[in-house]
Amino acid sequence: MLMDVNEIREYLPHRYPFLLVDRVLELDPGKSIVAYKNVSVNEGFFQGHFPDLPVMPGVLIVEAMAQAAGILGFRTMNKKPADGSIYYFVGADDLRFKRPVVPGDRLQLEASILTEKRGIWKFSCRASVDGQTACEATILCADRKR
Predict the structure, then answer these.
(1) Residues 26, 105, 50: CA angle, nearest 5 degrees
(2) 0.90 exceeded by the pTM?
(3) For labeling, which of 28, 74, 92, 122 is most exposed (least CB within 10 Å)?
């Protein structure tokens, strides 16, 4: 399954500058997703983080993983934000950063469903660059009505 940014926008309410998933490479509803974000030096956050040594903020890496997980959750439930549903990022456990993400990197985002109970989803997530882990975490999202 392949999703371009136009289809991704159907499954995420985020828009520029906060849409952090550029493409979905693999999607197995109920199981897992592989997506990516191209990290460009033109990203606004690099103006202040850090001008002389640009590094993607860790919170945005975590947000990108959560957005990929959100797409997986929406597709698994066969829902879209237009149906009146929204995913809230409600927590992260076992969060670790392993390497910086810098301009020119292609940040691969992977998420697998661990559990779902009463609208609370738990995902195992990993962000990597060229096979090297940049970040990993267990991310929790809540499916709620808008």
Answers:
(1) 135
(2) yes
(3) 28
Catalytic residues: 49
Q: What is the pLDDT of residues 112-130, one digit of tens each?
A: 999 999 999 999 999 999 9
- 102 is written with which tokens? 């810098």
- Which one, of 57, 61, 51, lies nearest residue 125 by Cα? 61
- Tell me what pLDDT residue 146 has: 85
Domains of the chain: 5-145 (3.10.129.10)
- Three-state SS string across the chain, please? CCECHHHHHHHCCCCCCCCCCCEEEEEECCCEEEEEEECCCCCHHHHCCCCCCCCCCHHHHHHHHHHHHHHHHHHHHCCCHHHCEEEEEEEEEEEEECCCCCCCCEEEEEEEEEEEECCEEEEEEEEEECCEEEEEEEEEEEEEEC
Q: CB 24: neighbour CB atoms within 10 A?
A: 23
Q: Tell me which residue has tokens 């509803």.
A: 29
At residue 1, does pLDDT exceed 70? no
Using alpha carbons, select from 92, 81, 90 the residue that is nearest to residue 136: 92
